[in-house]
Amino acid sequence: MPGGLAWSPLADVSETDDAYLIEADLPGVKQDQVSVEVSGGDLVISGEITRRERAGVLRRATRRQGRFAYRTMLPADADVDQVSASLSDGVLSVRVAKAETAKPRRIEITAG
Questions:
Q1: Residue 109 has pLDDT above 50, yes or no
Q2: In whole angstroms, what is the distance from residue 5 CA to residue 66 CA?
Q3: Residue 112 and residue 107: Cα distance in Å, rounded?
Q4: How far apart are CA 85 and CA 6, in angstroms?
Q5: How far apart are CA 74 and CA 37, in angstroms?
Q6: For the chain, where are the alpha helices, taking DSSP H only?
Q7: Of 55, 68, 71, 75, which residue is least crowded by CB atoms under 10 Å?
Q8: Segment 12-71, tens digit of pLDDT
């Protein structure tokens, strides 16, 4: 990342019949502090948590701050034109739909 090293948020990647789901822990992050981009076959979640102004002396700091980035390579059957994201309760949820051809299709069996 330009401007120094970035930390990576904790994230889970799961798969359903019709989509890939990425859930990243971003406590305290506001919607305007995070960006979701698809470039080539990669999904990139990035942003920055800025230091809060405080009164008094800070005695201990263990919260992460500064630039963050999470990158994952999307499977070949991901439909990069069908990506949605939402941020709720400190969790960013990104849904990447699967291409129609990749979805399971039930084949009807007929009497022969």
A1: yes
A2: 9
A3: 15
A4: 21
A5: 12
A6: none
A7: 55
A8: 999 999 999 999 999 989 999 999 999 988 999 999 988 777 788 878 877 778 899 999
Among candidate residues 45, 34, 93, 87, the one with its CA nearest the CA of residue 70:
45
Both tokens of 20, joined, read 């890939």
- Its pTM stands at 0.80
The owner of tokens 């960006």 is: 35
Q: Which two tokens stand for residue 10?
A: 């904790």
For residue 111, the tally of other CB atoms under 10 A from its CB is 3
Q: Which residues are CB-contacts of 57 (< 8 A; sequence separation ≥ 6)?
A: none
Domain annotation for the chain: domains and CATH numbers: 11-101 (2.60.40.790)
- What are the tokens at 95? 């849904």
The Cβ of residue 29 has, within 10 Å, a number of other Cβ atoms equal to 19
